[in-house]
Design a protein that fits this description.
This protein has three helices and two strands. It has a two-stranded parallel sheet with strand order 1-2.
Length: 82
């Protein structure tokens, strides 16, 4: 399988289907999609998302507002478990 490197590319739109696959912070899929540079992002899913703050952080904030609520360690300490 040929790997493609999109690190130097900037996209107008990124559409990520099956958003529930991005909630595992240590997965290769999550790491690869977090490096995408785009002006507009969409996350689509047909699967019901759990309403836990962890899911919200891992899927939406890391894709759409990276760094907004800091890294996972600080998020767990300051937000999820006050």
């Amino acid at each position: 399988m040929m790997e493609k490197n999109y690190n130097d590319k900037k996209f107008d739109v990124a559409i990520l289907d099956e958003a529930q696959k991005y909630k595992n912070v240590s997965s290769l899929v999550k790491k690869a999609t977090s490096k995408l540079k785009s002006t507009v992002n969409f996350a689509l899913t047909g699967t019901q998302l759990k309403t836990a703050l962890w899911n919200f952080w891992s899927i939406f904030l890391t894709l759409f507002l990276p760094g907004y609520l800091d890294n996972i360690t600080k998020f767990r300490k300051n937000i999820k478990i006050p």
